[in-house]
Amino acid sequence: xxxxxxxxxxxxxxxxxxxxxxxxxxxxxxxxxxxxxxxxxxxxxxxxxxxxxxxxxxxxxxxxxxxxxxxxxxxxxxxxxxxxxxxxxxxxxxxxxxxxxxxxxxxxxxxxxxxxxxxxxxxxxxxxxxxxxxxxxxxxxxxxxxxxxxxxxxxxxxxxxxxxxxxxxxxxxxxxxxxxxxxxxxxxxxxxxxxxxxxxxxxxxxxxxxxxxxxxxxxxxxxxxxxxxxxxxxxxxxxxxxxxxxxxxxxxxxxxxxxxxxxxxxxxxxxxxxxxxxxxxxxxxxxxxxxxxxxxxxxxxxxxxxxxxxxxxxxxxxxxxxxxxxxxxxxxxxxxxxxxxxxxxxxxxxxxxxxxxxxxxxxxxxxxxxxxxxxxxxxxxxxxxxxxxxxxxxxxxxxxxxxxxxxxxxxxxxxxxxxxxxxxxxxxxxxxxxxxxxxxxxxxxxxxxxxxxxxxxxxxxxxxxxxxxxxxxxxxxxxxxxxxxxxxxxxxxxxxxxxxxxxxxxxxxxxxxxxxxxxxxxxxxxxxxxxxxxxxxxxxxxxxxxxxxxxxxxxxxxxxxxxxxxxxxxx
Length: 571
Known about the structure:
single chain; alpha/beta; FAD/NAD(P)-binding domain; Glucose Oxidase, domain 3; 2 domains; 7-stranded antiparallel beta sheet; 15 helices; 25% helix; 21% strand
């Protein structure tokens, strides 16, 4: 949905120059060429151009985020995620065996800001144990929780909620920063009765669902108040934050839209190491080459980045040769190890209602009210029981005893991002530590054909077991006495299903959380597997790095540290 520019101006938005046509650029040779203007690409663009001696070009395939009301209004996120539209690549997965052979839509953003311009705005860091495991596996302590925390702070600009309510007891200021760039806040409107019931549940069921003052402290287990990338009642994306007017006006920073990169060009091999001149991209039906004199940085995401690598001859030699693509660098791990987190909902009829039109009018007038956030109030982070039967045959895939297996987000309305118009409440359940793996592969040697996306969802016993347990935990939550006079009935009732029937429900209703990662995985410098070293340079290549979610999930932080690693190489 687009709104007139004059209305956007009245809403207090500012615009900065973004190039729409390649002819507007002063040239096509830069120190750094960044592929993709998403979470990582825009962080890198911002941080690298802090050095006025660096020239940076960012190539973005998608359209501008300016004037896209569905991206601005937090509650309108479903308009971007619920079907084909101009701000999506409109991908579809291969048939998923674990989803009863369903092919499902796979949301990837086709808009400045990437998925930060159309994701669910959840601000969740994960557990300290996750990062410490990365540091151990890669042999680089810089990826540990303690070493990355300053980068979380560098990214985050903790902001008051839109309604300016007293947030005492709803978060821990000691683990947040008000000095960063990307806005993060608590919910900007209240559902007092519902919120009180959630908190009362933590008192009535403290063993199962203890209260957690701040799940972004590195120890997420428990139930905490929902935090999101929202500021002043609107979405805070990498486009609105890292490319804000004071940054985009730098003379050494150029961002070009409608520029789809197809492959790396000009490969040369010296002493067994491959280098490239730059990238080829398409705009308006013509092909152009952008040259990078220092480094090409792929930030096209967990789907785009491996596709570009493979189209450039970087990947499994045999697979590429079979497609008629000349192998330049044999890295079999490219596109492999795809990891995603399945999600689905459980819903209950509930005594509550809010009028859509009144809430929308309030947002238009003051950027306050229910439309300033998702109808989510809290997140519960839980683990499987240590004596769960699944652990007789499966090693716990979590990073440690303080790392959750399950995320349950709790809110009013039916489904994620639904308008608070009905009398319902829903729990969204996410499997955080899947053991299923998929892949990103090519279907042809035409770099503009969409890749084959196989997230490999729910194909292991552990994953379907964990999905069932998430249902059991959600039903346990609403067994707290405080819910007795508010919940009418679940729709449908999952608690009375047989195991087989519940598995069928899950496989027929689960879909992606959009969290695909690790398709260009990082590994120790001398590891025989993986795609990048801990310094984020591609193994066996020079002047080519990957900095995005194909490395790991905490994209903003990967990019913040990645920017420092790049600076260290060239200053």
